[in-house]
Amino acid sequence: MSRKDQELTDHMPYVADRAKDVPSADELRARIPGWGSDLDLADRPSVPKLSREAGSATGAQWVRPETQPGAEGRERSIEHAHVTPVFGTAQPLSGLAGVVKWYAYRRFSEGRLPHWMLLVVGDRLDVATNRVTDALRGRPDRIVAETGIAAERADSPVGARVGSSRRDWRHGVLDPVVTMWPYLLIGGVAVWVVRRARR
Questions:
Q1: Which of 70, 74, 123, 195 keeps 20 to 30 A from 82, CA to CA?
Q2: What is the CA radius of gyration of the chain?
Q3: 57 falls in which pLDDT band (50, 70, 90)?
Q4: With the C-alpha atoms ordered 89, 90, 91, 95, is the resulting torsion angle positive or negative?
């Protein structure tokens, strides 16, 4: 049985990669006060309760379920040896956003900021791509209706914000920018293309 097969048949759903240059227990204990204080089972208050079940240190009974088909090539964090036995398939990676997200999973750990920032960038690219494709298919977003401006008009928006402690007034400035930037970008590119064509 190969190492990979052993990992996949292990009861642990995730198998962490072995860290490099790990200090010894004595080095850590000398450097960090209190390190390893729970290594001795006698020092763990929960051990007597957890070991009541015969034949198990924790009493947990778990059999790894059969792996869902299609796990090959699925995105997963680099800390994990394989995907979970059951996973979602509703939003497969696609397009430029998929490339960005795939790079985030393949290159950076979940503990690194670039991992999450790239996923956010991928989401924004996905939104922009879908807005453009919807517009090209004749179903553009209803920008004005989706802002909720009709409800604002009926409920005295200015009076509700001026002189109050509400903090959502910032959204009145930021929301149009967040909502409109893909269209502004498309418009800017169109103007640039027309100017280049005229030259």
A1: 123
A2: 27
A3: low
A4: positive
Give start and end residues of each alpha helix (H) in the chain. 3-9, 25-31, 47-50, 95-107, 113-136, 143-146, 149-154, 157-161, 169-198
**What is the per-residue pLDDT for 10?**
43
Q: What is the mean pLDDT of residues 162-179?
A: 69
What letter represents residue 78's amino acid?
A: I
**For residues 177 and 140, which has the higher predicted lDDT (pLDDT)?**
140
Biggest CA–CA distance in the chain, Å, is: 84
Q: Which of 145, 138, 143, 126 is nearest to 180 (CA)?
A: 143
Angle at 140 between CA 138 and CA 143, to 5 degrees: 160
Name the H helices within 41-112.
47-50, 95-107
d(CA 188, CA 184) in angstroms, rounded, equals 6
Which pLDDT value is given to residue 161?
66
Name the nearest CA neighbour of 143 among 166, 177, 119. Answer: 177
CA 66, CA 84: separation in Å to the nearest integer?
10
What's the pTM value of the predicted model, to 2 decimals?
0.50
